[in-house]
Amino acid sequence: MNKPSLDILLKKVDSRYTLVVAAAKRARMLTNPESSAGTKPVSRALEEIAADRLQYERTKSGIK
């Protein structure tokens, strides 16, 4: 079972595209080449979105 669920995540953003882009950008920020243990960056980014700890802003050129 995936945590958090897709249903919860889609309530936090306006589309699946936004979810993917926001999670990918945050995961890149969390990536640390020295640390491979613990929660994976994408999982952590999705958890932050579900907990409303990650805010995004749509712009004409993408997500900021």
TrEMBL record:
Keyword Nucleus set for record: no
GO biological process: DNA-templated transcription
Lineage: superkingdom: Bacteria
The enzyme's E.C. designation: 2.7.7.6
SMART domains hit by this protein: RNA_pol_Rpb6 (SM01409)
One of the Pfam families matching this protein, by short name: RNA_pol_Rpb6
GO MF, one example: DNA binding
UniProt keyword annotations, A-Z: DNA-directed RNA polymerase, Nucleotidyltransferase, Transcription, Transferase
Catalytic activity entry: RNA(n) + a ribonucleoside 5'-triphosphate = RNA(n+1) + diphosphate
Keyword Oxidoreductase annotated: no
Example of a GO cellular component annotation carried by this entry: DNA-directed RNA polymerase complex
Quaternary state and interactors: The RNAP catalytic core consists of 2 alpha, 1 beta, 1 beta' and 1 omega subunit. When a sigma factor is associated with the core the holoenzyme is formed, which can initiate transcription.
Similarity section: Belongs to the RNA polymerase subunit omega family.
Protein's job: Promotes RNA polymerase assembly. Latches the N- and C-terminal regions of the beta' subunit thereby facilitating its interaction with the beta and alpha subunits.
NCBIfam families the UniProt entry points to: rpoZ
Protein name as annotated: DNA-directed RNA polymerase subunit omega
Gene (name only): rpoZ
